[in-house]
Amino acid sequence: MITRDRDRTPWARASRVLPLDAERAWDLVADARHHTRWVPLTRVDLVRRSARAAGGTTPEVGDEIRAVTGPTARGGGPGLVDRMRIERYERPLGAVPGVAVFQKLGPVLLGAARIEVEAAGSSARVTWSESVHLRGLPPVATRWLGVLLVDRMLGLVLRRAAREVADGAQRTAA
Q1: Picking from 127-131, 139-143, 170-174, which range would have the lowest pLDDT averaged per residue?
Q2: Do the bridges between strand 10-18 and strand 109-120 make them parallel or antiparallel, or are there none, so unpaired?
Q3: SS3 of 9, please?
């Protein structure tokens, strides 16, 4: 789904209910390292902002995400690099949704991505939004193209995440 915010900036937005509590859904979708399993032809790495954070397992504000997309990217090959910095990383707490905000740093894509996870009974609603544009061109000229491309990808990614959760639940029950 494509929406606009108050300043009329277009955002690609997908939402899905996962049969996990909000904490477990957060651990799954907010940690970008898991996205490798769902985003086609892409590998994702977490780059720690400091040596102190290097030993931790949970992403933190200031850490960078490096996603590389291309035919051989998952095997370590080259591709389109999408660098992001974690600007906000707040876990869900009771009725308060968890929010992760990633600022896109280039070299090709600029903009922002946002993942929200909120409790929905014994499940969790995950909403993933992105607004992207190409570096070097006016944002107004490339933002709609970026949103159209990202919109389809977000739906696919959340479907794959939901399938992974369902498959895991089936294996656990067996």
Answers
A1: 170-174
A2: unpaired
A3: coil
Q: What is the pLDDT of residue 7?
A: 74
Q: Tell me which residue range forms the domain holding 31.
A: 12-173
Q: What are phi and psi of 54, to 5 degrees?
A: -60, -30
CATH number of the domain to which 155 belongs: 3.30.530.20
pLDDT digits (tens, 9 = 90+) for 43-64: 999 998 776 655 668 899 999 9
Q: Which two tokens stand for residue 62?
A: 């200031």
Output the DSSP codes for 91-148. Answer: --BTTBPEEEEEEEEEESEEEEEEEEEEEETTEEEEEEEEEEEETTS-HHHHHHHHHH
Residue 122 lies in a domain: yes
Residue position matching structure tokens 């859904």: 25
Q: Domains in the chain: how many in total?
A: 1
Work out the burial of residue 126: count CB atoms within 10 Å of its CB; fewer than 13 is exposed, 13-18 middle, 19 or more buried. Answer: buried
